[in-house]
Amino acid sequence: MFQVTSFKFYIIVFSLISMLIGISPKSAEAAKIFFNSELGDKAGVGQVIPVDILLDTQRESINAVEMKIRYAKDLLRPVSFSDGNSLINLWVEKTNPDQEPLIFRGIVPGGYSGQGLLLRIYFETLGTGRAAVELDPILTSVLLNDGEGTAARVSLANFALDIARDYSSEKLLETDTYPPESFQPVIADDATVFGGKYFVVFATQDKGSGMDHYEVQENIKAEPEVGKWRLAGSPHHVLNDQNLESYVFVKAVDKSGNERIEIIPPKGVRYGDWGVYIYWIFVFIVLLVLITRFLKKLYNKIYR
Fold this sequence. Notes:
Layout: H1 8-21, E1 31-36, E2 42-44, E3 48-56, E4 62-71, E5 76-82, E6 90-94, E7 102-112, E8 115-125, E9 129-135, E10 141-144, E11 154-157, E12 159-164, E13 186-189, E14 198-201, E15 211-219, E16 230-232, E17 236-238, E18 247-254, E19 259-264, H2 274-303
Parallel strand pairs: 1-11, 2-12
Antiparallel strand pairs: 1-3, 3-8, 4-7, 4-9, 4-10, 5-8, 6-7, 9-12, 13-14, 14-17, 15-16, 15-18, 18-19
């Protein structure tokens, strides 16, 4: 059962979007969640195998997915996850690779219909045997894009990997040299959340290795400084500078270490800026006085 209570903030947002966009017609078939590996179902010991989790909505429109995945711990070790090219726009929960079972919860504001990738898991093979990767039938669910969070009918297909010592042991991790996609962080405030304090909202995707984390820095300087970054959780982060006198830098980092930094300029007037404003006001007044005197002399010459 999808834990809607813990996602109240998100569910309200994308449910409203869903109702505005419309409700798709019901289909007779259940949505399908299944596994696939581009390397097939055989591997050698010491290989790193990419295993994709895919969703076929069977003509339904869905807007949320929850998955609980179990795997043979004596034969497999999750190395990393990649959500590059995932149909999920926002992950509400994503466990660490060293945890078992693996739990993922994500949403798709506006809905999704069709067949696409949910997530790619890289497993390292540890020993010989038949290694199962399975979806928990009770704690795996899909919500329809009907504005009410109705649970869709879902069929699950599990995966098994035959591991033997005579297969190739070549590691096949992908190389990602591209930064996360460009994004626009926004400063907002709401009396109903965070005690009415200002917070910055941000989210992006990485089509290569997938997003790893975000960092935020508030600085009166126009350039970020090393050592002043703080880890931040997407999609929001409460600001320390509630006067909005600082530059806000948001750094998105993917799993390959590639970075993209976006900037929000100060919205308030910093105390140190008053000297600049006073200087230009003084210059304006001096120019105004000089122009007035010049025009007065010119007038006197013409009319006297």
